[in-house]
Amino acid sequence: MNAKDEKEINLIEQELKEINAKVSKLQNRKSELIKRKEHLKHLSFQRQTDSISDQNKWTHTDFPWYNKVQDTLKNVFKLETFRSQQMAAINITLSKHDAILIMPTGGGKSLCYQLPAMVDKGFTLVVSPMVSLMEDQIIQMNKLKINAMMISSYSTKDETKLLFQMMIDSKSGLKLVYCTPERIAKSKTFMTKLQKAHSLKLLSRIAVDEVHCCTTWGHDFRPDYTHLTIFKPMFPDIPILGLTATASSKVITDTQKLLQVEGCALLKATFNRPNLYYEVRWKPDNKECVDEFESLLKNKFKNQSGIIYTTSIKDCESLRQDLRERGCKVGAYHAQLDGNLRSKVHNKWLNGEYQVVVATIAFGLGIDKPDVRFVIHHALSKSIENFYQESGRAGRDGKHSTCLLYYKLSDVFKLSTMVFTTQTGLPNLYSIVKFCLNPKDCRRKLIASHFDESWESTDCNKMCDHCSAENSIKCICINKYCIEVYKILNSASNNDTKFTAQMLLDSWYGKVQKKIKLVDVKPPTFSRMRAEMILGELLVQEYLAEDFHYTPYSTISYIKKGQNYRKISADNKIFMYVSSGQSIEPDTKKMKVV
Ligand code: ADP
Ligand code: MG
Ligand code: ZN
Fold this sequence. Notes:
The protein folds into four domains: 1-52; 54-268, 3-Layer(aba) Sandwich (Rossmann fold), CATH 3.40.50; 276-469, Rossmann fold (3-Layer(aba) Sandwich), CATH 3.40.50; 475-579, Orthogonal Bundle (Arc Repressor Mutant, subunit A). The chain is built from 21 helices and 17 strands. The protein has helices at 3-52, 66-75, 86-94, 111-119, 131-143, 157-167, 181-186, 188-199, 231-234, 249-259, 286-300, 313-325, 339-350, 384-391, 409-419, 425-437, 443-450, 465-468, 479-494, 501-508, 528-540, and strands at residues 99-102, 123-127, 148-151, 176-179, 203-208, 240-244, 265-268, 276-282, 305-309, 330-333, 356-359, 372-377, 401-407, 473-477, 544-550, 555-561, 575-579. A seven-stranded parallel β-sheet has the order 3-4-2-5-6-1-7, with helices on both faces. A six-stranded parallel β-sheet has the order 8-13-12-9-11-10. Adenosine-5'-diphosphate binds at residues 79, 82-83, 86, 103, 105-111, 368.
């Protein structure tokens, strides 16, 4: 290369460098601005939401439809008064504003779109995730002489044809059209009819039930719900009403974005169920556990109706069997029973032939028995959300009812191997483990904070195990136990072995597998229950973690060090709470009395 060329290349390189520097500066600025813009938009939407959600705007009686609403409530729905948030939701949607209504299961969300459907001209479109839920509602509506129809993959050609005609006929009297999200995603003819109905001003509102299904942050994401994003651009003047019992703010903001209703009204009914007594108990070994259940059914809950939730079909069947052998009147309900048998069990329970249904969570949606006096969780649920929903089936009539949760460390691993593949599976599970292990805070307060609800300590009224007991609590440091556990894990890995929690506990207590030599590990002087608590605590504080391995038949959860393992040191203590006045020698059934 000659000197002249070389010089020019150098100059170009120099200039390129400068340009690159400027580009990167500009790019930084660009991403800063984008972030800032998003933030401001978010704040502005939030202000909009706060302002429009103001209760005072929606609970007065000056609305032109006030009389019609009251009349419909009494004469069509045969109800006396509105429950909390129903009136606001109805007035908002009748004012053609978009809204999301968050209300616990059983709170009465459906009325908030069923009633407005009767007030407005035309029909309300209801998107619902399950055919059986839609069927229930149609039966209910038809009983009240409300013209409601549905379209699903089970609809016959003739039914569909009739529905399509009615949707575009102003004289049809059609009030509610139920469809699954799949219809919106896949059926062009249905969408065409909707557009036609809209142009004829016969589409009065769109209600999206279980609206949390549209985000992966919710507990049951349904991909077809993401297609609902076309509603707003397609029908900009039609109010959307989303309904859910999921309150986490992440889920709600995601949902608003997807439905393109950011800044919409947000109504939230309280999640507090004042008549439910919450208690967590330490679960004993199987035989003692069945003894305890038998005694509960025959004494504490004698002549009362209840549900026992189990984690697996196997547990469900065997617990039913065990309780029957002891003369308890119980039926089993799970997904492997055929539909007829399931409704038979359900009916026997409704009419009192069975005191209890032992069930998997397949037993849930659509249960509307008001006098369920107790719900027992034979094992913890997958999340606080699930626990709240399941236990919430007790006491719909407002009378005192009991919710018992039996906690055991090994149940955690039964569930973790089922849920670990989903994005939120493990964090959700660990939050309910924390809920169980918590020895001092009001259970209601813990649930309320999970639902982002503010909480006054007086709101519990001694209706949970912690508020009704008068134990004081002290904090103990469990570093030294963590170190012992790490020694065992090191020995295992030096021998190319992995330990499950049970094997880890066995080793700690000296029941060592021959080939593994434990170095310098002292067996605990306290009970195995205490050791299990410590492991649970280390797990949720991420000093331990689960390590999942597939085998051809199942998934196994092994225990490994958690991401916090480096933090263990003299000045970083891991704490656990126990009742004061006692050392680390528990042995009562109630977890908090340690
Ligand atoms: P959600 O969808 O919130 O779980 P539903 O809409 O299925 O709850 O309603 C649960 C039950 O509450 C139904 O039996 C319904 O008839 C009843 N309900 C709803 N609103 C009222 C009200 N204002 N007064 C009395 N009962 C009501
Ligand atoms: Mg509902
Ligand atoms: Zn309490």
